[in-house]
Amino acid sequence: MRRTLHFPRILLSLLGGTLLFVTMGLIVRAAEVTQQAQLTQFTNSIGPVLAAKCVSCHRADNLKGNFDLTTREGMLRGGDSGPALIPGKPTDSPLYARSIPANGQPPEMPEKGETLTEKEAIALKEWIAAGAAWPEKLVLKEKAKADGSFWSFQPIAKVSPPEVLNSSPAWRVNPIDAFLAHKLQERGLTPNKPADARTFIRRATFDLLGLPPTPAEVTSFARECAETAANPQGGLPDAAVERLIDRLLARLQYGERWGRHWLDVIRFGESRGYERNEIITNLWPFRDYIIRSFNEDKPFDRLILEHLAGDVIGKDQPEVEIGSAFLVAGPYDDVGNQDAVQAAQIRADQMDEMIRATSEAFLGLSVGCARCHDHKFDPLKAKDYYALYATFAGTVHGPREVASASARQERVTKLQPLQTERTKLVAERNTHQQALSARAKQSEAEAAKMWTRPRLSRYGTEERFDATDAKFIRLTVEGTDSKDGKPAQFRLDEFEVWTDEPTPRNVALSTAGATATGPSRDAKDFAGAYSAALVNDGKFGERWFAAGEQLVIALSKAERVNRVFFSSDRTRALGEDHPLTVFVGDYRIETSADGKEWTQVASSDDRAPPTDLRKQARLMKLVTTAEDVAQTAKFNADLAALDTEIAKYPPLPVWWIGTHKAINAPQHVFVGGNPQRKGDEVLPASLEVLAQLPSAYQLDAKQDEGTRRLALAKWLTAADNPLTPRVLANRVWQYHFGTGLVDTPSDFGYLGSRPTHPELLDWLATELQRTGWQLKPLHRQIMLSQAYRQSGEWHAAAAEVDADSRLLWRFPPRRLTAEEIRDTLLHFAGKLDLTMGGPGFRLYEYQQDNVATYVPLDVYGPETYRRTIYHHNARAARVDLLTDFDCPDPAFAEARRASTTTPLQALTLMNHSFSNEMTRLLAERLQKDSPPVASQVNQAFELAYARGPSERERTAGIKLIEAHGLRAFCRAILNSNELIHIN
């Protein structure tokens, strides 16, 4: 018999609820799993496709069809033709329907670039059908065109020179030639014949020194080549060429030439830039450091360490510390009156300049383009940019004292006794002054009874006195009504002298024949802007800015006068407290008949003091006795004697090297580049795209700023960093051949060029590292190549294939740089001063009055005859000869100079005052060295072209001299194309 079980209703109810809860939980959990799977699908398959193929044309700043595909909301909102996305309905969603082929026609979208693959289209359809899940708050960004697989981010390949079968044996010796010959053969090109000795020495000497060879050097090298065993393969003897290159590399002018190249790259300029553009007088030690480093062949990895952290690795070693001036060698904005928002923006701009200079010079990457958002083309994120920001955040522009530890200690030892004695004297003088001040305070109540008249008014102040005959009236100012009270900084818009007669006349007016004299603030660029003549012109709109303590009015003749009236803001346009109308405070008025003997007729002694400072000065004057005066004079004399002794020990050098402050606050991404919109916190780190390198790093926020800069420098020069060696090797190649293997030397990213010879570039980068990052071995390797030693002769057939000779079927001719042209003219004239180092000379007149102006010189003296690298290279300072021949403005880094041809260049060489002066000096040199006319023609050709004249040229030269004089001939030589071009 089967028994029936009976459960209480309450138990059944509880059991049912439990089952329902479990079932619902399983359903919710399943939904969560499904949602997570859809989000994963979006992250892996959908988001990257949309970013790579859709967002470039459909984002907030580029809304084609008014479609924004960067957010789910934007897709649902749609554009001109309705929503782009209808969740659950892929075939009704234009996002999918327009991305697949239809009716035998290709997809409508994307209009440009690759269409969706079949796999991508299926994934997009499935995603929409499943509801189009989208990560919360995600905004898609356009995918960079390049990623970590881009050529420049790949490890430097260990390559061997290719086998070259059908080339000249000479082109199989140097690995450089093998790489080049292989490419030439692929394009059906053959290299030129070798250059002759005279062509080669001129090319090599300009290349390494930036100067022409002397006629004696040309003759000697030609003779050496003739006497040295010839190459079996032909061309100049290797041994003679090697000796020439070694001699040139050993010359000190090498550092000047190649240092100039590097100064271009690192935007070295000796003024601050921006609207104020004040000159910097103490950055020249950095220029000398660069020249010295190149001459010493300092390993470039060491140079980079010193550029970024010289003060860290070389503390108290000035010759090392100066290297870190690289960080502050660029322009920076120091505009005043900054509020907090403006100051933050200006600081961000200063950091941006450092980041761009560093990333472009060493990495060949435009990291600066990631300031506001991830880079549009390269795999560089805003986080990378701000990691560099966090690295440099402690660096501040400006000068600081630089000296060795021993020099500091020696100075302290010698000065300490003198400073101790001086401190004691100052304390004694202060005690004496405090006693006087106490007495002065006690006398204030009594003195105040004397101040019966009101204080002066800038709107107009009158002084009346007993009538007196005078031809001269003098105002002497003992203090102003400004806070600092300096007497030599007052202003006057008018000073009147009135006669004592029934109808008084202002006899101080210039129209009455009177003159006003007194020291004025200097304003060379605005002559007379602050002249004392403004005080008696009868007008009130402009002011005399005093630079002294006195104003003298000389009348046209003696007059009987009894009143003066003066002001600094007669029209009341600026107000009593405006800094431009600073007025006299304490003063006295004197008259004279002859300008020698003076009589006081009025003073401010009975007026209320204009400031507390002037009140204190008056009280001190009242209570000071003759004994006090003598005691003060003794204190001052003793202090002056001590100061004279102290001055015998000059201060330690102060160089524009920057200062470095602690970084205490966390650093953040600035959203949209706006310092007021702080995003995620960032840490100092290497580029994320190269995070797989063993040398990659990320520091914690506690690391001091010096450690941050040193870490970056070590990463830049690490053996596994593929960018820095390639960039540097390419720069060296560029300066030898005119164009780099990559012709965008500071952009190895997507928008830059691809290398013409990638294997050769990697081989050069490897050689650079193998030889210890020294440049001279690389110079030698390049200049010994047949590619460098070939002629520059042009061939039409080859030019059809390679017009610019990027493949080096001939040596690419080039025009001399602006500096080379100027130095060459000085050299020919026999006036080039080869003195090295020290403060630079100026080819302009510097004028500073609120803003700086640089006026080019018209007359040039011997002090300007040094090499042009020593010219004080201010920003926005136009120097005609240099500017016309493409000398860059150091407001920006110049990775590759322009080389233009313009009518202005010919006019400058023909008519510029410097060119004409060099023409005159060259004529004098030829007249002195080679009196016969034929000899003068020969010498001029040897100097200018490293060759003698042909018979036709000699005859033409002689005729020109006989018809128009030697200077006309010299002018023709200095205006020739051959002079300023290298073949």
TrEMBL record:
Entry keywords, A to Z: Heme, Iron, Metal-binding
Domain Cytochrome c: 12-132
Pfam families assigned: PSCyt1, PSCyt2, PSD1
GO molecular function ontology, one term from the record: electron transfer activity
Name this polypeptide is given: Planctomycete cytochrome C
Organism: Anatilimnocola aggregata
